[in-house]
Amino acid sequence: MNYVADIFFNKILQTAILSWFIAQAIKVVITLIKDRRFDFTRMFGSGGMPSSHASFTVSLATAVGFETSFSSVEFALAAAFAIVVMYDATGVRRSAGEQAKILNKIVESMRYKDSSQTGKKLKELLGHTPVEVFAGAVLGVIVAIIFAFNT
């Protein structure tokens, strides 16, 4: 058996990766429209609309449900995984991003703008609002449905 080739032909994994890719591409387009600038780094960055974490995990769970049935153990595991990821995105990671904003403002107000004095600026865009997670989850379901019925 060629396990590497099997990974590339795994329809469930392909669905999840496609869903992630679409979510990240949407972030680039939103930045282009909103900020009137092309920022390709949004293709690989975290945070923002829609949540690619939610999109990836929900499409994974949905695809598993279509493949194995929505009453299967596999679906239950994938759904639980998606719920934990989405909870974390709106909870812990979002809080960390909010704390980073405050810390960056404190450092800036102390006039320590030289990064050699304070280190680099903390990353602020980490987590998601509930709306961003919901949008990512809906995108994940849509991608899984389209992929399931077109393959």
Describe the structure.
With 151 residues, the chain is mostly helical. It is 72% helix and 0% strand. It is built from seven helices and no strands. α2 crosses α7 (130-149), α3 (52-68) runs parallel beside α7 (130-149) and α4 (73-90) packs parallel to α5. The chain is elongated. The relative contact order is 0.18.
Short description:
The chain is an all-alpha fold. It is 72% helix and 0% strand. The chain contains seven helices and no strands.
> What is the helical fraction, as a range of percent?
over 70%
Query: How many H/I helical runs?
Result: 7
| Beta-strand content | under 5%
Poorly predicted regions are none
What is the terminal separation in angstroms? Answer: 23 Å
Structural class: mainly alpha
Mind summarizing the main beta sheet? none
Rg measurement, Å? 18 Å
Question: Can you count the beta strands?
Answer: 0
Q: Assign an overall shape.
A: elongated
Order of helices and strands: HHHHHHH
What's the overall average pLDDT, rounded? Answer: 83
List the helices and strands and how they pair.
Blueprint: H1 3-8, H2 11-35, H3 52-68, H4 73-90, H5 92-109, H6 115-118, H7 130-149
Helix pairs in contact: 2-3, 2-7, 3-4, 3-7, 4-5
Which terms summarize this structure?
151 residues; mainly alpha
